[in-house]
Amino acid sequence: MGIENKEDRRVRKTKKALREGLIELLNEKSIQNITIRELTDKVDIHRSTFYANFTDVYELYGHVEDSILQEISDIISADNNFEPNIFFRDLLEYINSNRQISRLFFGGNTSAAFFERLTGLLKNACIDCWCKEYSISSISEEMDYYVQFCLSGWLGAIGLWVARDFAYQMEALVNILSDMDASIGKVFGKTFS
């Protein structure tokens, strides 16, 4: 059992190194121009170690996307009551703690597929929360447009913060995002009261 734990730890360490190396390279060039040799040289592992974990850089990139979405899902799950100030603070702290990754995935240069998955994750969390809050089983098509508008605003504001290199005070942005949430909450409240 001790050997399995060491192997698991080594695999996690290797995947983390590859993830960080890929992110560094993606900040310099497009994924199409990144070679396995360049990546493995950067993180100082053997090419065979790379191939033991991934088939190519695109699979590794998919792993990075999946990891980010899982970490955001964990943030959502940690806040069972969806307190906007707590959620947005936790989300922005995550983004701020992972600046290099955040510049790629929240700074406006993300893939459409990742953005769609991220939006879907946040949208489902919002709908679940608002359905619980207003004791409804689903939202109307009209409310779906409000939710989409709200999500676009949140992600746009976060993208601007990242694009401006995190210069705006994080707590002030938490307040802005919470105010956006409160505004859509008023719309929902009027609709279901």
> Which structural class is indicated by helix and strand composition?
mainly alpha
Give the proportion of residues in helices. Answer: over 70%
Strand % is under 5%
Q: State the separation between the terminal residues, measured CA to CA.
A: 57 Å
The best one-word shape is elongated
Low-confidence stretches: none
**How many strands?**
0
Rounded mean pLDDT is 87
**Integer-rounded radius of gyration:** 19 Å
- Count of alpha/pi helices: 9
Assembly context of the chains? single chain
Order of helices and strands: HHHHHHHHH
Biggest sheet architecture: none
What do these coordinates show?
The structure is a single chain. By secondary structure, this protein is mainly α. 78% of the residues lie in helices and 0% in strands. It is elongated, with a radius of gyration of 19 Å. The N and C termini lie far apart (57 Å).
What's the gist of this structure?
The protein is an all-alpha fold.
